[in-house]
Write a structure and sequence with these properties.
heterodimer, A: Rossmann fold, 2 domains, 4-stranded parallel sheet, B: mainly alpha, ABC transporter involved in vitamin B12 uptake, BtuC
């Protein structure tokens, strides 16, 4: 234990007083002019690679906004940190609000960490834009009025792929075997999947819960082989999907494999020859929309590689936040909530604009199923995914795939 | 039918154990001879995978699997000479801290050099798919892996038990003072052991790159299992580690067959039970300098 004697305390406080007289005031004034934003995302663990893309995306938006003169003439100053795990995420969020003086909280990919940050936001009555976590529960039974959700929720991903399976005659009377990530997000995805199977005539013959640190799937693959399903289905998350796909290809099981969650960074890592089947995504860099193409070109110029969906979503999220602050001319939580709840539309680099639903704070937007291009058609190592048509379709309501008020248990 | 399924899991578990073995045996050797728990062992495993990807770009998969462990073994010389050597006689907590620190540094270096996103690695098409032996399903690639592990295992055993090198090492484990009194310097042997140990870890990394996910934290993922295997097997025992690795693989497979959610916990339960009845591990020897 460190002990301070009276002399050293006197010395250091004298030094502190001196420093504040000379240097601190100007720094403080400069910082007060900036709008501080607290950003948390996992940089380590099974979602770490996605978090790295998330940081690239939000940094790019920050730089663009600041270059263009900032928000209300003030520069944005984003503090971005590794959220590590749900407990640490909550501690850091609290510290950012209390000590760093951030105006709003943003970020996250891990549903369990997002949940604890949501609670911190509600306790402090401050705005949290929950960007990349997809668990239904966050915008369902755990929803709160201080949190807005950007990424597509689990049930939309299930619908996006499920509809494609129904169209391809891979649903009715087919036997499904699922592997499910053993945490809030996986459980949610499995529930949504089961509901979809039940409603569309699919039969779930087996479901295995898989701990998030499993890197060896061979025992599960043997079980699947014994069960002889018609379709194998992944409810896993993060880089576990990559490992599963690689080992599935290694064993060469005859059953087609699909999944209700796969981020493009993890799809890229699986390798062209290994990936097959239909998967959902919220955005892909080959999307044929001019604004999206400009973003992709700029991102490649900065980083030497195309953006992953988490880079895109963080980029548009900060732009949405800046739009809200500019329009309300404020960083006040209540005013921002009112703006987001007003049905204001946002350009999210897709064919249709997005908006937040008032009663569950979920961004309404298009999603896409994707498949794998035939061998030899990929232009580069990032190009082997073929994006399907947007869902909901152009003539449907953007809310067509989302839970209705009756299905969703969210009460603010 | 149920019995057959179980047998299949057992056989698969043995193959899996072979992979744990590559990592754990080196860890055990370094611990037994130098008294250092090398928490950076996983980092060398990760380096093996990444370096093999770089080599494979130019020379193909086969050369990568051969050359990457050699490159990492050379790094092992630096590691032993400038880092580990200072800690043989020191408080074990110091070597734990320094190797743990090194593991984190290497992980960050990998993140800086190769990026945080996982890397795609493809195995040669010839090894894809599985073969049936009777009614058993085997991944073709894993059979190759098993063959490599067996060859490595036999070579190490011969080296430790039939060559003068091994006699010095085994004497060094039990009676380092006596070895010194006979005028034999243990230091070059220790360098060789560390090279061997981290080289095996790198071989594991290079061989496993095509079927697992290659990302900066892959080392941290493997070190826990390897450590559990060493503890169950017992220090200083070659066969202890071999039996333990296979046991961990089999127990994990069987558990997943019956209670999938407990798959990851099974090896810790096994460790607990073994230590309860045999505090030194299955075949652990009494090593005076650690008592």
């Amino acid at each position: 234990m460190t002990r301070y004697n009276r002399r050293s305390i006197l010395k250091s406080s004298a030094a502190l007083a001196g420093a504040s007289a000379i240097g601190f005031p100007s720094i403080l004034r400069a910082q007060a002019d900036k709008i501080k934003i607290g950003h948390l995302t996992p940089l380590t663990g099974f979602l770490g690679a996605l978090g790295a893309y998330a940081q690239l995306g939000i940094r790019m938006a920050e730089e663009e906004i600041n270059k263009a003169g900032g928000v209300m003439g003030r520069q944005l100053d984003i503090t971005s940190e590794d959220s590590v795990n749900p407990a640490t995420a909550a501690t850091k969020a609290q510290r950012m609000l209390e000590q760093d003086g951030v105006a709003v909280l943003m970020g996250e990919i891990n549903s369990a960490s997002a949940l604890t940050i949501m609670q911190v936001a509600a306790r402090n009555k401050r705005l949290y834009m929950q960007i990349g976590a997809r668990s239904d529960a966050l915008r369902g039974k755990n929803c709160n009025r201080y949190t807005f959700h950007v990424d597509i929720p689990s049930h939309v991903m299930v619908y996006a792929v499920g509809k494609a399976l129904v169209r391809d005659n891979m649903m009715k009377d087919k036997k499904f075997y699922t592997l499910t990530a053993d945490y809030i997000f996986g459980h949610d995805l499995a529930d949504a999947a089961k509901a979809f199977f039940d409603a569309n005539g699919g039969k779930l013959i087996g479901d295995e819960l898989v701990a998030t640190d499993v890197t060896e799937f061979s025992p599960y693959l043997l079980k699947i082989r014994q069960a002889k399903p018609d379709v194998v289905c992944s409810n896993l998350a993060g880089n576990q999907v990559t490992t599963l796909i690689k080992q599935y290809a290694e064993f060469g099981l005859p059953f087609p494999i699909v999944g209700f969650n796969l981020n493009t960074a993890d799809a890229w890592a699986a390798g062209e020859g290994n990936l097959s089947g239909t998967w959902p995504t919220v955005w892909y860099h080959t999307l044929d929309v001019p604004a999206s193409k400009t973003f992709v070109a700029d991102f490649i110029k900065r980083n030497g590689k195309p953006p992953e969906n988490h880079a895109w979503i963080e980029y548009v999220s900060l732009k949405m936040m800046a739009q809200a602050m500019n329009e309300t001319k404020s960083t006040d939580t209540e005013k921002l909530i009112a703006y987001f709840e007003s049905g204001a539309t946002f350009d999210i680099l897709k064919a249709r604009k997005g908006y937040f639903r008032t009663w569950d704070h979920q961004l309404m937007q298009e999603a896409y199923p994707f498949t794998v291009k035939p061998k030899g058609e990929a232009k580069d190592q990032w190009d082997f995914l073929a994006l399907g048509a947007a869902v909901p379709g152009p003539n449907e309501s953007l809310e067509a795939l989302s839970m209705t008020k009756e299905q969703n248990t969210c009460v603010m | 039918m149920q019995f057959e399924f179980l047998l299949e899991q057992v056989v698969n578990g043995l193959v899996l154990g072979g992979y744990y073995l590559l990592i754990a045996l080196g860890l055990s050797l370094i611990f037994s001879v130098g008294g250092v728990v090398n928490l950076a062992h996983g980092a060398f495993y990760a380096l093996g995978a990444y370096i093999s990807i770089e080599i494979a770009k130019y020379l193909g998969f086969g050369s990568a699997v051969l050359l990457s462990p050699l490159a990492v073994a050379l790094l092992g010389i630096l590691f032993e000479r400038f880092l580990l050597r200072r800690f043989y006689a020191a408080d074990p907590i110091l070597s734990l801290l320094v190797t743990f620190g090194l593991a984190m540094i290497v992980e960050q270096l990998i993140r800086i050099v190769w990026g945080a996103a996982p890397r795609a690695v493809n195995m040669p098409a010839a090894f894809k798919g599985s073969v049936f032996v009777g009614d058993f399903l085997f991944s073709r690639y894993r059979l190759l892996l098993l063959a490599v592990v067996v060859v490595v295992l036999i070579s190490i055993w011969l080296l430790l038990h039939k060559a003068s090198f091994g006699r010095v090492i085994r004497a060094g484990i039990q009676k380092p003072d006596m070895v010194a009194a006979l005028g034999i310097r243990l230091q070059p042997y220790m360098t060789a052991i560390v090279m061997l140990g981290v080289g095996m870890a790198a071989l594991g990394g290079a061989l496993f790159a095509p079927i697992t996910i290659v990302h900066p934290a892959m080392g941290a993922e493997v070190i826990t299992v390897a450590f559990v295997v060493v503890v169950i097997g017992g220090l200083g025992s070659f066969w202890g580690v071999v039996i333990s690795a296979l046991l961990v693989g089999v127990v994990r497979g069987i558990t997943i067959n019956f209670i999938p959610a407990a798959g990851e916990a099974s090896m810790y339960v096994l460790m607990f039970l073994v230590l309860l009845f045999r505090p030194r591990g299955l075949l652990g020897e009494r090593i005076e300098k650690f008592e």
